[in-house]
Specification:
Elements lengths: L2 E12 L11 E11 L4 E9 L4 H12 L11 H11 L7 H21 L3 H5 L5 E6 L9 H13 L4 E5 L4 H15 L4 E5 L6 H12 L3 E5 L7 H10 L3 E4 L6 H9 L5 E2 L3 H4 L2 H14 L2 E2 L5 H10 L6 E3 L13 E2 L2 E3 L12 H7 L3
Parallel strand pairs: 4-11, 5-6, 6-7, 7-8, 8-9, 9-10
Antiparallel strand pairs: 1-2, 2-3, 4-13, 12-13
Cofactor: Mg(2+)
Organism: Salipiger marinus
Keywords: Magnesium, Metal-binding
């Protein structure tokens, strides 16, 4: 069945207080709806956070990309992904990859809905649930008591790992992480994310201190493009080194993998080009024996992780719960893979009315 109509949209809503570093932070979902000639629809989206910018992605969708879908079929998703990549190659791979990601997710969603199966099944599902870590409630601006409480609540809910954001004030981070370790005990894993804030010397110093607290991985301690810096960190720190959320395709991951600079690959399918490209990154990780832990956007990444042989974690970041008809189901720290057709996400009429950018 061919695609007969497309539409772009933006939902803009406030950030979670426990994750935000400023009171005015917000998220934008920049989305695409595609409709075939039977009336079946698929939806996909990318996102921006903190500072906006979604209108730039939408402009590229509306003026360059969406018209190229008319008359094509959802089953052409891999071919279309490649065509759109080459169509936008000279524009760079930031905004363009985000726009392609939204289209790719919508096409995969439509493809699965046309068959009445879940997206995980379409991708080659290997498991019914995926381990998850608690995230999104550990801003560096969060008071220590709130940080400890939110981390302990995740562990009490069955999660065996929690993520803490560090790097804004490294001299205080050690005490904050130690307080969480004392609250949750020696069993659960702690993951530390510096959001690219540190210089290499500072990352080496902080990483060594955090090693005494049995940190499982150190995420984005330095700027994500610094291959040599990550290679040195991986060689000298006692914990795993993770990065990749700011990469825009498998081509960005490849030099880090071949240089031995990362232990954990963290693709975000909303940035790298959707499911089509994220699957190839998963294959790369499998080839080199590396772990994959997709970044953010839990409701989509649960389908991807269910199909990847080396997916170790999905990031449980509950920032969309109030927008959806159906929430994710958790059991003993695992996220159950939804079995509704497509990705299974339906936005509530109330959320659509309240947050749609008109």
């Amino acid at each position: 069945m061919t695609i007969r109509a497309t539409q772009s949209w933006i939902l803009r809503f406030p950030s979670n207080r426990l994750a935000a570093e400023r009171s005015d932070e917000f998220f934008e979902l920049i989305g695409v709806t595609v409709r075939d000639d039977s009336g079946e629809e698929g939806t996909g989206w990318t996102f921006t956070s903190d500072y906006g910018g979604g209108e730039a992605v939408r402009a590229l969708l509306d003026t360059v990309l969406l018209d190229r879908l008319i008359g094509r079929e959802a089953d052409e998703v891999e071919v279309l992904n490649d065509e759109l990549f080459h169509r936008t190659h000279r524009l760079g791979h930031g905004i363009a990859s985000m726009a392609i990601s939204a289209i790719d997710v919508a096409l995969w969603d439509l493809r699965a809905r046309q068959r009445g199966v879940s997206l995980a099944f379409m991708l080659g599902q290997r498991r019914a649930s995926v381990p998850s870590y608690g995230s999104g409630k550990a801003s560096p601006s969060l008071p220590l008591d709130d940080l400890v409480r939110s981390s302990a609540e995740y562990v009490a809910a069955g999660f065996d790992a929690v993520k803490i954001r560090v790097g804004r004030q490294p001299d205080q981070d050690i005490a904050r992480v130690r307080a969480v370790r004392e609250a949750i005990g020696p069993g659960p894993r702690i993951l530390c994310d510096a959001n690219e804030r540190l210089s290499l010397p500072a990352a080496l110093w902080l990483g060594r201190q955090l090693g005494d607290l049995d940190i499982y991985w150190f995420e984005e301690p330095i700027l994500s493009q610094d291959i040599e810096g990550y290679r040195r960190l991986r060689a000298q720190l006692p914990m795993a080194v993770a990065s990749g959320e700011h990469f825009h395709s498998r081509r960005d991951f490849a030099p880090f993998v071949t240089a031995g600079a990362l232990d954990v690959l963290q693709p975000d399918l909303c940035f790298v080009g959707g499911f089509t490209e994220a699957l190839k990154i998963g294959e790369m990780a499998d080839m080199f024996g590396l772990a994959v832990a997709p970044h953010f956007m839990t409701v989509l990444h649960i389908h991807l992780a269910a199909a990847l042989p080396r997916a170790t974690y999905v990031e449980y970041y509950p920032f969309m719960d109030d927008l959806m008809e159906h929430g994710l189901e958790l059991r003993d720290g695992q996220i159950l893979v939804p079995d509704r057709p497509g990705h299974g996400v339906t936005f509530t009429p109330a959320a659509w009315d309240r947050y749609l950018v008109r």
